[in-house]
Amino acid sequence: MVEWEYNNYLMVVKVLNDFLSKLDSQCSCVLQQRIEIRKLRQGEHLILGFSIGGGIDQDPGQNPFSEDKSDKGIYVTRVTPEGPAEVAGLMMGDKVMQVNGWDMTMVTHDQARKRLTKKNEDVVRLLVTRKSLEQAVKHSMM
Amino acid sequence: MFCRTQTTRATIARGSALEMEIRRGKFRRSVFLDTLQDSDIQKKIDHEIRMRDGACKLLAACSQRDQALEAAKSLLTCNTRIMAYMSELQRMKEAQVMQRVARRSDGTRSSDAGPMDDRLPCKGKVAISDLRIPLMWKDTEYFKNKGELHRCAVFCLLQVGGEIHDTDMVMVDRTLTDICFDNTIVFSEASPGFELRVELYSCCSEEDYSAGSAPRKLASKLSSSLGRSAGKKLRVAMDPGACSPTSNAGAATLLLPGPAVAGPKYHLLAHTSLSLSHVQDSFRTHDLSISGNEECSYWVPLYGSVCCRLAAQPHCMTQQMMSGCLKVKQLGGDPPSWRNVYGVLKGTNLFCYHRQEDMEANVEPAFTIAINKETRIRASEKDPHSKAQSICISNQYGGEEVTHTLSTDSREETHRWMEAFWQQFCDMSQWKQCCDDLMKIELPSPRKPALVTSKQGSLYHEIVIDTSDDISTVTDILTRRMQELELRSQLGTSPPWMSLFEESPGGPRTPRLARHSPRSPHRLPHSPLSSLRCPWPGLLSSDASLTSDSDSPCSTSPCSRHRGWAEPLSLSSPRFRPRTLSLDAKLSTLRGRGYGGVLQCSCQPPSSSSLAPIPAQCIPQATLSCSSSTSSNSSSEGSHSPSSLDGTPFSRPSSARRSLRNLRAKLDPRNWLQSQV
């Protein structure tokens, strides 16, 4: 990101964080968000611009983004800067609940990847949950 | 095929239906007219018989379960096709006989041309794609971690009239939630009243990997002995005296029983029938009628429905039904002026171009008149100014009615145009919703020759190798197979999706791998195979998925299996899934072809137990599994010294090496996988 954009972003995030913390210091907000990502064509591939981790066949203890270390869901582990996912508002640490109506809470890693990379779909609509803005920022700065 | 005016040379298979037909030649030709359609079907039957013979031979000769399943599938398809062609032939013969009888009695010649009153709707293309059959496993089945994985081989047979297509075979086990068939199947000549019969066949696939040759010998013995008896049947049936004149009963008895071959047998598991009312441009769910129950060996728990996309493209929508020069009356002005256009009737529109060349050059038409269900067309009375009748086409645009008046140069032209319009209306009324909009049909891409795909297994499956087994025979067989694969790999090219695993020149795509925190070391049971064991310590993790019986003889770890099979990935079809299991996979790597793919960062302290994510630029180290140096590795978990590479040279380009390394990283269950999408 360009320097000033990043600063702006941080400022917005700070304001929001303050607001959220004022709401209830105890509450950990869980935002559910619907994100629509339009795939980008790169040569032969349609890419979304993010990476996922997790799955029922994976070890949940190694998931750095999950609160509950037995959560075998699919998490966004990286978002390519300026990629379609970032543009659509996806953030690192989001847990993907659904993709185009398909459930993603009880799938293997490979199944999850396949549901996101269907060749005949140009758009994926994700339902994600986000722990809180603060934590998401923390992770993105790591 | 054998006309008087043509001299043709053809080699005819002995015992084929065609040969029999020729033998009965004179007699037959005196009774029937030798139509082109007849010989067409004969050719098809002949072809299918040859295919069937080939499938039988393959079934007898093959030893691997997958090959046998594929061959059995081809056999079933061929048989079904033969039956369909035979019945079609039967119907045609009967129709001819009826016609002939009618002709004789009437004394009039019933011509080929059908009565003009009954208009036949045009045919069309029907395509079925993205077949998906949901399964409904019981909870207990799904989470069962030990014991055999009950697997079945399934495929679908799709039939429209005489056209029969089969989908690819899919192995189904409890890790699958749906059976998906990726094929798109297109039937080219279907009438609007078509009935698409979808049949799901399944066959139980046992787990035993018996490398013994006894069953093989038995199978070949059986097939050869049956071959002789089948040949005897052929000779008996070929006796022309045994054939009846009015039907192909002789041929039928020859063909239908066929050689019974020992091998896997498919059973009908479910079926359904789709027709025009099910056609839609999107996915729809249909009910399946299930035959069979839980007791059958070939049972797969179906949810009871099938999802698919059934699309139809009637020819009237895709082809030009009529074209010619027209005159369009310009509104206003008296006397009315006429404009010359070149009209093309296609789909739901009449495109009017300035000139014929415009149409060929794909220039936009001057204007377009809609011809759809709401259009009304009538021939008006003779205009005093023009010689022929004119055609009035009325459409409702919004609330207004707009009428175009067309005329042609001659009465015959006008008549032809009217005929074309009537035909269009007939087609639209028959094809109904297919004529609203053109449905897209993706033509199936030319399929790569199907290599024998290896068995797909779950990550947590295991093979138990008895210590008393003679390992050397197993390894010998496997070396041979490896060499086969090596040959194939040199011929094949890497499929397009391999690039997904290659490092892109752009942004960093190397997945970040968290170092797995060391678990308690495991003891490796001693066995003759210990020298061949996986040198990755601790990979026999205490996952519940592996057998908890620690007394069992050595079981291979999932990773090492995947290592070996990761290589043939570059040569198999794109649908090859990179998770397999077999002893030969392990052995093939250990024979010096492979190299370790254990991913860890040498920069990480071995005793770390935290899950700090590794910076993206960490390049995974490759450690080689040397058969000799395993004992030192078996106990220590944290430290890994990159051992020296084995002497054998790599035949692989470096990009494939990297991608294979990445694949191995993927397949190591200790790594928390991350995938780029």
TrEMBL record, chain A:
GO terms for cellular component: adherens junction; basolateral plasma membrane; cytoplasm; nucleus; postsynaptic density; postsynaptic membrane. Keywords: Acetylation, Cell membrane, Cytoplasm, Membrane, Nucleus, Phosphoprotein, Wnt signaling pathway. Residues 34-131 form the PDZ domain. One of its GO terms (molecular function) is protein kinase binding. It is a peripheral membrane protein. This is Tax1-binding protein 3. It is found in: Cell membrane; Cytoplasm; Nucleus. Pfam families: PDZ (PF00595). Gene3D superfamilies: 2.30.42.10. The lineage of its organism: Eukaryota, Metazoa, Chordata, Craniata, Vertebrata.
TrEMBL record, chain B:
It comes from the Eukaryota. Residues 17-98 form the REM-1 domain. InterPro entries: AHD, Cytokinesis/Rho-signaling, HR1_rho-bd, PH-like_dom_sf, PH_domain. The keyword Hydrolase does not apply. Residues 319-426 form the PH domain. Keywords: Coiled coil. It holds the Pfam family Anillin. Residues 512-525 have a biased composition (Basic residues). This is Rhotekin. The lineage of its organism: Eukaryota, Metazoa, Chordata, Craniata, Vertebrata.
